[in-house]
Amino acid sequence: MTTAAHSPVPSVKLLINGEFVESATQQWRDVVNPATQQVLARAPFATPAEVEAAVAAAKKAFVTWRRTPIGARARIFLKYQQLIRENMRELAAILTAEQGKTLPDAEGDIFRGLEVVEHAANIGNLQMGELANNVAGGVDTYTLLQPIGVCAGITPFNFPAMIPLWMFPMAIACGNTFVLKPSEQDPMVTMRLVELALQAGVPAGVLNVVHGGEDVVNAICDHADIKAISFVGSTKVGTHVYHRATLAGKRVQCMMGAKNHAVILPDANKEQTINSLVGATFGAAGQRCMAVSVAVLVGEARNWIPELVATAKTLKVNAGTEPGTDVGPVISCAAYDRVNTLIERGVADGAKLELDGRKPNVPGFEQGNFIAPTIFSGVKPGMSVYEQEIFGPVLCLAEADSLQQAIEMINANPNGNGTAIFTQSGAAARKFQEEIDVGQVGINVPIPVPVPLFSFTGSRASKLGDLGPYGKQVISFYTQTKTITQRWFDDSTLAVGVNTTIALK
Length: 505
What we know:
Number of domains: 2
Protein name: methylmalonate-semialdehyde dehydrogenase (CoA acylating)
Strand order of the largest sheet: 14-15-16-13-12-18-19
Number of helices: 16
InterPro entries: Ald_DH/histidinol_DH (IPR016161), Ald_DH_C (IPR016163), Ald_DH_CS_CYS (IPR016160), Ald_DH_N (IPR016162), Aldehyde_DH_dom (IPR015590), MeMal-semiAld_DH (IPR010061)
GO molecular function, one term: methylmalonate-semialdehyde dehydrogenase (acylating, NAD) activity
Number of strands: 22
EC number: 1.2.1.27
Largest sheet: 7 strands, mixed
Radius of gyration: 25 Å
Helix content: 25-40%
Organism: Pseudoduganella violacea
């Protein structure tokens, strides 16, 4: 972090009440291209007064936005999805420059967020209450799903397009206003998406953006005018956010760390399974909360290791802008050092390094944070590479004698974000889906992130809060259910006298 008041690179702006504002802070962080170490911009750590102004703008805008007809809200997101599609290449280029993932993967990042924007455009069919007619003599009961007020989102570096788009479109479509805090490591594509949202018609104050670190996060957790917080990121920070914000009386949903296992049964289609594993593990340099980081080889599937290593060796490591790249750099020098340290610990703990991806040769990008695909075999619970979320291109291979043993291993792990099984047995797949204690389950699908018609459903240590982002659950998260019981009388209604019981008659 720097404190310079002037820099030759552009500064990332705040968005407050519809205006892009230069921060008055003295604390800045460089936004760095992880493939080249080029400084692309500098991101401010917003001052307390700037956070206060953003929340105040959202609170003021809520008064009128909540009364905006639902069709008018929906049309904004119809326009917004069109603008995202029209600017897809530009958005992907920005994302790749600051985050490092390949251009095709960057487009995938944006597209998965775009799906949620499209879902938000369907808010007229989603934000509907219920009616029961004549529940007692002339009495009807119905519910209203009303917006709750100012909401906030705190997003991570690994999906700087998708995860912000998980949050503010659904919140705003429900009639709330929003304060977004993107990752300070790669906020540029998020800000471009915000510009497009304003262009689509989101009114001033309905969407606001502040940048920063722990102080800004704490300010969001503590602010009395913020009613709900959505968070995606590390377990450490997510646990802090959940406890601090819930103590302040807020609704909170936190999607956090993971250790995703894929179970490989020997009857699985070998080529399809190996290709799926390699793609799910090493795509985005392993920096996905739903990446496969552990493969549990059951029985004779342990003989597939040579072919798995051979396939991983075919992946091309290079800058995300280069054609044909499969694996780009990790996000920062700190992440690079952490992943390399964990690889060293894996060796020290006794795991067998089947493929060593440290210090690959990447001509023209020698300063990049590159780690090539790395594979350990003989990994067991208790080893550092098994217990910690590596968040890099590292695959741990464990072994089990049976499907039951594999299920017990996964259920003993504290995390429950995602898991998968590869098999041609319907009976085995059914046993797995019924007995596994993990939120998202794939059957011959390595990264089972649900489409927006459904909700993201991580569990156990991977999630705090009972409602997931996007899908049907998030409508409940971003609205308050109001139940109304009514009776109308006319002149023909017979007087029923005084009723001192609780029953309706």
